[in-house]
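Re: that chain you flagged

S.,

Sorry for the slow reply, it's been a week of failed gels. I finally had a moment to sit down with the sequence you sent. For the record, here it is as I used it:
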Amino acid sequence: MTDHILFRLRALPFLLSLGLLVIAGPENGFADDIGNPAKPLVVVELFTSQGCLSCPPADDFLKDLSARDDVLALSMHVDYWDYIGWKDPFAKPRFTNRQRQYASLMTLRYVYTPQMVINGVYQTVGSRRDEVLGFIEKAKTEMKSVPVAIDLARENGALRVRLQKLDMPDTPDTIDVYAVFYDKLHSTAVGRGENSGRKIINANVVRDLQRIAEWDGQDFNVSVRSDRDNKSDVAAVFLQARKSGRIIAAARLEL
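Prediction finished late last night. Pasting the C-alpha cells below so you have them in one place:
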C-alpha cells in the first residue's frame, strides 16, 4: 500500500520574479489545499564529526532542532577528523565535499566543525544557538512567494518524487533536486580520539545524499532508491539553486 503525503511549500522571492505560476487542484492530481498551505521548511545542515571535541554541543542543538516542524535538520558527518584516532561510522567523503562546495560559494578560507549552514546561504558555528535561530527566522521570512508543490510517496521499496509542472521561463541559475535519507537517532560510545569515553547522541544522521536531477520546471516524476536498501527512517527532498546555494523548497516523508 502506498504511503502518500503532499507538501505545499513556498519558494523564494526570486522565483516569483521569474513569473512562475502554480495551479494546484484536483485536475492535476494535487489536493486542493490552497487555503491551508504547509509551513515553509528551513533546511539546517550540521557538518560534524564524532572525532571533534567541540562538536557534541552542536549535536545536542541539532537534536533540539530536529523536533521542530518548520525545520529540516540534517547531520552531515565529515571524514577529515578520522585520522586522529576515531573513525566516525557515519562520515562519508560526499558530505565533506558538500561542505567544501559551501566554503567555495561563501568564499570561506577553510572548512571547520561544527558548522551549521541554514538554507544554503547562511552559516555559523553550530553551537551558537541564538545566531542559528536568527538565521532560521530570517530564512522563513524569505520563503513567502508562490507555492511549489512536492509530492513524495513510498512505492515498491523506493521513494517516488513528483514536482508539479510549472511554466518556467529561463532562469540564470540551475535548480538541482536532492534526495536525502537519514536516521532519526544514533547513540555511539566513542572509544578513541578527542571524545574518548563519551557517549555521543546524533540526531537526523544523513546516511545517503543524492543529486537526482536538474529541474527545469516541467513535470517531474522519478523513483529514487537509497544505497541503504530502505534502512533509513526518513526521506527528504530539497531543491537548491546551484550558483547561489539557496535552498528554495523542501519536503520530508517518514519511511
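What I noticed first: The chain has one domain: 3-254.

Talk soon,
D.
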